[in-house]
Amino acid sequence: MVGGMSGVSGVEDVEALREVLRGGDDTKAWLEHLDRIGGPDFDVALPAADDLPPVLIELAVPHEDIDALVVLRPSRERTPAIWWLLERCTHALINEMGAVGRPPGPTKFPALPKRLGALSRYFYVYVYLAALPHVRAYHRALGIAEEVTRVTLADVGRNMAVHRRRRGVGGMAEPNWPVAHFRGVLYQLGRLQFQRARLGGRTGHGITAAGLPYGPGDPALAVHVPAYYGPLTSEACDESFARARSFFAYHFPDERYGVAVCHSWLLDEQLAEYLPEDANIVRFQRRFRPAYQPAQDLSILRFVFGVDDLPERAPLTPEALNALPCRTALERAVADHLKAGRRWHGGAGWLLL
Q: Which of 288, 289, 188, 278 is nearest to 233 (CA)?
């Protein structure tokens, strides 16, 4: 059995699982949140084992993970404790369907204890599978094209591909990232993704200071750049922004989006010192006006080099810097910058739609 469910020690019943979850600060807070919202008032279901592979393929789940997900598929009868957790996590996920902003309570799915075996890496895939009919129904009610739904929700598979690239095993790299997708808040429109959001304090004040009629708390579209979707060309980005203007005006007419924001390592202006003027990254970041400079942020290492065992804020040792692969102009730029004793900050910017 793949990471055998029967080999999960001490979670034969709900109370045993609850005791396991009480053992960590994050999981304890999450358990308390699940208790506050209670069980769902709808039936939670997963595709049958024989029907699961095509659903996973539609979500772009890597083929290497499909057999494990079929084997580990929980059920109400066989794994009642895990099913109890699945029901409540699904409820927590779709309880705020369509709502913009942070829902009440903890905002992140916690990492599950490793004693759950492979299920600790795969569990949230089942939560998204259970939420799938609900988000599809929400999209249909808004008249959103099925192709937009399909491409948007396929970020589950992209997330899993990143996990396998970084760690060499199946799982979700960022289990919380698809939450916005499955709550009907984020949509992929061509090369870029756009999330219904509100301006934060620093960005909002920066836009106000520029003399524009927007400020903290006003509606904004947060722009995200998904991996594994081809070059970030100016033409592809132009098309995405054009689609976003019409998409949100049509499907969310009560929400007026006049500004878009982006918070990303891609907007660190120092990249322009190393990359050609016509580089896609440079052309992308110049679409945005800087809002503020974030503090030191080494998440660029995770995105550029595709590994998880690098710090995000602490300095790297000379040995660690010399071990970084420098196969591309971007990789060389990131490494050389740090070897010179300089810092990466990422960036925060905005543009008018």
A: 278
What's the pLDDT tens digit per position in 197-211?
A: 999 999 999 999 999
- Determine if residue 184 is left, alpha or beta; phi over 0 gives left, psi from -120 to 50 gives alpha, anything else beta: left
- DSSP3 helix / strand / coil % (the chain, rounded to 5): 50, 10, 40
Q: Which two tokens stand for residue 176?
A: 């919380």
Paired residues of 292 in beta bridges: 348
Q: Is 224 helix (H, G, I), strand (E, B) or coil?
A: strand
- Give the SS3 label for residue 239: helix
Residues 292-349: pLDDT tens digits? 888 776 778 888 887 665 655 556 778 878 888 888 888 888 888 888 888 888 899 9
Structure tokens at 139: 């999209």
Distance CA 16, CA 153 (A): 33
Which CATH number is 188-352 given?
Answer: 3.40.630.120
Q: Taking Cα atoms as reference points, which of 346, 342, 352, 347 lies closest to residue 321?
A: 342
Main-chain dihedrals φ then ψ at residue 219, nearest 5 degrees: -60, 145
Identify whether the C-beta of residue 229 lies closer than 8 Å to the C-beta of residue 222.
Answer: no
| Separation CA 6–CA 12 (nearest Å) | 9
172 contacts 125 by C-beta, under 8 angstroms: yes
Coil, strand or helix at 335: helix
Q: How far is CA 255 from CA 30, 98, 161, 258, in A?
A: 31, 12, 34, 10
Question: Where in the chain are all domains bearing CATH 3.40.630.120?
Answer: 188-352
Cα(199)–Cα(142) distance, integer angstroms: 24
Cα–Cα dist 70/82, whole Å: 15
